[in-house]
Amino acid sequence: QVQLVESGGGLVQPGGTLRLSCAASGGILRLNAMGWFRRAPGKQRELVASITIASGGVASYADSVKGRFTITRDLAKNTVYLQMNSLKPEDTAVYYCAARAAALQAYNYWGQGTQVTVSS
């Protein structure tokens, strides 16, 4: 069983930065990929970024965050990070860390979520 715990959310001004962390108990080497999703009020959940655990850590991003967000993983610390730069008010959402055990499977491990609010 994998448990995911997020941290690092908060309130930031437009143009600011935040880094989210997701610590995985039970180790991440057994996983195929991890990702960050977000849900804004009144909107559907969106996959923001994902990264493979093996294969050199191949990352992918939603168009809305390309060039601003960076996802990385630290295998020694069983942790995935989401560095968020140039934040915009429309990035305001609850951010969830998720993981999947195999390629083409749904993300079936979820964290509790962390609030990110971008406002002046």
Low-pLDDT parts are none
**Average pLDDT, to the nearest integer?**
95
Percent helix range: under 10%
N/C terminus separation: 40 Å
Work out the strand percent.
Answer: over 45%
Count, helices: 0
Rg estimate, integer Å: 13 Å
Instruction: Give the H and E element order.
Output: EEEEEEEEEEE
Give the biggest sheet. Answer: 7 strands, mixed
Overview of this protein structure:
The chain has 120 residues and is mainly beta. Helix content is 0%, strand content 50%. Strands 2, 4, 5, 6, 9, 10 and 11 form a 7-stranded mixed β-sheet that branches. Strands 1-3-8-7 form a 4-stranded antiparallel β-sheet, with no helix packed on it. The protein is globular and about 40 Å long. The mean pLDDT is 95.
Quick overview:
The chain has 120 residues and is mainly β. The protein has strands at residues 3-7, 10-12, 18-25, 33-39, 46-52, 59-61, 69-74, 79-84, 93-100, 109-110, 114-118.
Write the layout of secondary structure elements.
Elements lengths: L2 E5 L2 E3 L5 E8 L7 E7 L6 E7 L6 E3 L7 E6 L4 E6 L8 E8 L8 E2 L3 E5 L2
Tags for this model:
120 residues; 7-stranded mixed beta sheet; 0% helix; globular
